[in-house]
Amino acid sequence: MSVISLRLGEEIIPALAGILLEGSAGAPPDLGRTAVVFGGRRPALFLRRELARRRGGCLVPPRCFSMDEFAEYLLSPSEPVRRISEMDACHLLYRLARRAVPEILEGREEFSRFLPWAREIASFIERLDLDDVPAAALRNIQASAAIGYDAPPWVNALLERLVALREAYHRALEERGELSRGLAYLLASRAAAEADLAAFDRVVFCAPFRLARTEAALVRALLDRGRAALLVQGDARDWRALEGAARALGRGIRPGRWDGRVGGLALHAGADTQSQAAIVKGILAAGGCDERTVVVLPDPGSLIPL
Residue 146's pLDDT is what? Predict the structure, then answer.
């Protein structure tokens, strides 16, 4: 099955471990030719622990990637991709702007003054690359459904300059043999249909929720080749992001019947960070918490008080 849908109340790591170990009741399975792609790096630790717990001994684990790492792997399976650093990207944009669109430096001719603007431009270009927004959509933003809003003439003029800067930026990265994150996804999405996957028998994309256009194109290309499976949580009928992902992938995302139970939900209110931390302390002290308890903080600054 190319798409496996779970309900939000089901635990995804045990479900994934069960899928990977299916049919391996005898000798320890060799999962070395399986690639598992998560949104980040941390879930791989929990997957390996769950696989070891279920087998009760050693096994060859699957090769785990973050989505960023897998996009780069498709472009260069044998050696690491050279990723440009944030500061190098900002200085490169500054040098390119001086040559290609010097008017954008008006009032900020020195690099130190242009740096905050360079960060915004780099972030904007990355978003354009991740969603594979064509230059034509930016050159005529007022008539572009891809952008979705009307803009005054000065915005069109600014975007025209940014289009030129984006194209110069891509050319410069190619000459340097480096990639930005957005450009890596853009190139990988175009190469996925023919990418070399000889090292793997199957690729499992685990729990994507909102997919950028390049991510969806990458995943769909491998699904269409019959080389990948998608494990997802949620129902596209309930979540707009999943509805968009299902449409982009050309596949339904609807969980089957599930007889599991979902725990109760309780809300507690605190006046500030300190009082919220005290409430959590009381909940944890009340018992019933173990190594399977997870505390999720919306802001890293809350960690020390907690």
Answer: 46
